[in-house]
Design the sequence.
């Protein structure tokens, strides 16, 4: 977690490009972009240049939990 960024008050700064984020999670950059935009459109996060603010942590947690 600290390796890829820090969070405070729901704000996560990571300083990574989408290419770097994609490499970190084993996905294509386009997939990362689509997921981030989807999360933003659902009101779960607000994107910034090299980070984001979490608005709905429970929703993100549910999304990340295997079914």
Sequence:
């Amino acid at each position: 977690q600290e390796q890829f960024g820090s969070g405070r008050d729901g704000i996560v700064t990571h300083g990574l490009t989408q290419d770097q984020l994609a490499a970190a999670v084993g996905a294509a950059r386009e997939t990362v972009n689509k997921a981030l935009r989807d999360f933003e459109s659902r009101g779960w996060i607000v994107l910034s240049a090299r980070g984001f603010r979490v608005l709905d942590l429970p929703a993100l947690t549910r999304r990340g939990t295997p079914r």
